[in-house]
Specification:
Order of helices and strands: HHEEEHEHH
Number of strands: 4
Distance between the termini: 46 Å
Shape: globular
Radius of gyration: 16 Å
Largest sheet: 4 strands, mixed
Helix content: 25-40%
Strand order of the largest sheet: 1-2-3-4
Oligomer: single chain
Structural class: alpha+beta
CATH class: Alpha Beta
Strand content: 15-25%
Length: 135
């Protein structure tokens, strides 16, 4: 599957990374560093598009939709079709969701990762460390 990023998408990605919304920052704080057991990339260029968050293995894209997305439903449908043609599953959330229901968003992402057959650990409780049962 070919998902080579266009020159324009590659040049837009760093700009978008530096101008992340509060909602994107909040979600990124819980996706970064393989906290869910897989690597996510933020504002990742794919083809002529830039995905908000992309996990390349398994192939999952997470998009946060602000109010502008109501007026661009056709554009979003083309984006989703492109991502799916490249083998990605696409999850869309309202942009306020990470600010108001972050745990629910993370749970839905984990459920989707499990459905994609990814070897994902159980959802850790924030602030609780994993304990190792001694031998």
């Amino acid at each position: 599957m070919q998902y080579q990023a266009s020159t324009r998408a590659r040049s837009n990605a760093p700009v978008l990374r530096s101008a992340m919304t509060d909602s994107e920052r909040k979600l990124w704080s819980r996706l970064r560093g393989e906290q869910l057991g897989v690597k996510f990339r933020r504002q990742h260029p794919l083809g002529s598009y830039v995905a908000d968050f992309a996990c390349l293995a398994p192939r999952l894209i997470v998009e946060l939709d602000g109010s502008q997305h109501l007026a661009q439903a056709g554009y979003d449908a083309r984006r989703d079709a492109f991502f799916r043609h490249q083998g990605f599953e696409v999850l869309r959330f309202d942009s306020s969701a990470p600010l108001t229901q972050l745990e629910g968003v993370l749970q839905r992402i984990l459920e989707t990762l499990h459905a994609l057959q990814a070897p994902i650990p159980a959802f850790p409780q924030r602030g609780k460390e994993l304990t190792h049962q001694g031998v």
